[in-house]
Amino acid sequence: MTFLNYHKFLTTSFRGYSVKKLLPKYDVIIVGGGMVGFGLAAVAAASKSLGKKSILLLESSGKKKYQRKEEYENRVVALNDLSVNMLKDIGVWEFIQSFRSQPVNKMKVWETKSNLYLTFQRNPLAYIVENDLVIESLRNYLESNNNSSNVTILYETQAENIQLPSSDHPEHLVRVDVQQRTQDKRETVETDLLVC
């Protein structure tokens, strides 16, 4: 399956960010949200091979909504064609553009010890987008797609202890102690794939 066809296999939903009863095992556990964590969860949920797998995303901070300010945020990312196409395929690029993105059409790269430089030019070469806007678009995607319940997002939750299988027993699963700030006790879950 190509990277550009993920939207055909959308199978995610959102199970809130309050206290949740965790499953004893998840196929994939992602520690950390941000663009990488939410992006991986969205693409995995949309993929043919991972779309039906149970996915747990642990985000240590609380849920915060993107607020468009008059001035751009300092934390931005340059998105190339591949990233934009991935965002289009899962259906969030329009959301990003409806707020704001800035195309980059030309870039010069030079060094300080000579007059030599390289010029890259294309319309557009990339897009500059605020990090929080990308995160908001991915989070909205995961929360609003109700085709299945394979993605669980827990906010204000941390992985307290990670136990990898020993080399003597590689068949054992990774064990993760999960602590939700709103609960007193930790829960231990297992996974085949841990992404930190």
From TrEMBL:
* Top-level taxon: Eukaryota
> Which SUPFAM superfamilies does the record cross-reference, listed alphabetically?
FAD/NAD(P)-binding domain
- GO-annotated cellular components: mitochondrion
Q: A single GO molecular function, which one? A: FAD binding
What PANTHER family does the annotation carry? Answer: UBIQUINONE BIOSYNTHESIS MONOOXYGENASE COQ6, MITOCHONDRIAL
> What is the protein name given in its UniProt record?
Uncharacterized protein
Q: Which organism is it from?
A: Schistosoma mattheei
